[in-house]
Fold this sequence. Notes:
There is one protein chain. By secondary structure, the protein is mainly beta. It has three domains: about 10-40 and about 120-495, 6 Propeller (Neuraminidase); about 55-115, no CATH class; about 505-590, Immunoglobulin-like. It is about 10% helix and about 45% strand. It is built from seven helices and 38 strands. The radius of gyration is 25 Å and the shape is globular. This is T9SS type A sorting domain-containing protein.
Amino acid sequence: MYRTVLAAVLALAASVVALEFPDTPGAISSGPRVASQPDRDQVRPETHGTPTTAYAMLEQMSPTERSNACISIEFESSDAELLALGREVERLWNGGRCDEALAQLANLEACVGPVAVGNLWRTPVPTLQPDLWETDVRIGNRDTLMELAFDQQLSSGNLFVVLRHGTKSAWYLNMSTDGGANWSETYVWGGYGVVPSVDAAVLANNVYVVYSDSADNATQVRLRRFDCASGSIDSFSNSEEWVTACTLAAGDSVRELSLVSNQHGYNNRLYITTLVSDGSVLFSWDDTSAVSWLKVPTGITAGADFGLDATENQGFDSTFLFFSYYDTNDTLRIYGKTGGSLTRRYSLYVGGFSAYKTSISAYKDTVICAFNDGTSSPYQVLYRINYSGSPSWGFGTLSEPDTTAESPGVTARGGGGLAVVFRHYTPTRELRFRQRVNYGPGPWTDPISIADADPYWNRPGIEYLGSGVFGVAYLRRTSPVVRGAFFDRSDWPTGLAEQRRIIVSENILSVTPNPLSGRGRLNYTLDRPADLRVQVCDRAGRVVRTLYAGGRPAGRQSFGFDATGLVPGVYFIRADADGMARTVPVTVVR
């Protein structure tokens, strides 16, 4: 494992400070284009491979998958008979008559062309974790992914990641109910045409997913929602499983989407920002019903190119949402949305290169945007920040000046300060993490590597999970699978972190009570006699106490654990039996 712990206490002790300088928005600064760098990854996958029909997707399912799949057919039509035929396909399949359903589906696609299929797993499909020590937790069993969206429900702590496939027309919903230790896939959407973009956001009791089905109607921005407790489909008030949130002009299509909620505030609004194929930007919003969307012109009618991101402004004064993107003049644009207007807040020339995404976040009118800079050599990850809506902006560099860096993800939401991750170009690519524990000007922590393998170049997801902890979702470039999705937390320390999921699921090691004040018991199970060593480690993985070392018989056993003298905080009990180790966290309190 390549990382060290990201605990907030280390943030205060960082020795390297990223200098921040004043800047002023206004005229676009210009600069020379920097030649392409030979060390930078240039090969990127197709955005779509050979199309697969709904018939083929369902036909290829195994018997086990067929019995677990509860499907819905998605297509747009005003023909009542064709709509009824689609419902008949659903009834037959979900009733176990899959071959009959496939025959009727063939008839339907012969009439209307390719349709999309939504598949709710009756029993969510758990992630099959690799049998490897010291690896990050995998999200789902899919590979060859292109994009992810990450959010959490504040009230329950449940986590959600939506994954878009890189060559198929498909996206997948995954959730975790235990803080990211275990993940399950609850839903799969598959279509025929290119899925250009997906995004997700939690509002109240639902997680919403925005997408576009280019094969059925490329002008439509569509939305589905799912129950945050189970990940199952939650139909809208019109009894439909999907709604059209925005319709573009004839001939236009979706290029990129960003979905934002105000979950951290009033918890009653959804906002969709759409970057359109003609270079315009559209804004739409609705309440928790999400069936009567209002489309609001932005005044941006041309020039928007790629890199879209948007954010709520938690605890805002007047500007409730910000969004950012790159335009066709290689310029970073930042806009703020108030109740009745849209204001361009910042413009900066960033050079002509194949940047992927901007990343923007805000908290109480402090807004930060991290982005790729192509005017420097090597390419760098920079940020622009505005404090409390002032007319002046600050700027700084997040990456190291002698090493290429790209693809930042930043968060300010939740009250946990500022945090960012980005791709760092060591020979084995690293996912670097930096943090600022407050929202005012001040030092950033030293950049540290947090991933166990090299990340892919897409934008990672980062969210504040509370109690000083950040969660990170990212795609790996190769090992152990090509572009699989993985998860990490800032309170999972070196060499111990991902072992927590094994203990939780197998219930073979525990501390009671937990949290612990003073004396408690360590309970464990050995399936055979073994040489046992039990140690207490801090969050950096350092051994602070050895509780036992010697032979033990098989069976369920326990012994006393005296935490008196330990500084309050999170520790990890590591039990090593004949080379097989298990770990459990324990919180020590006064």
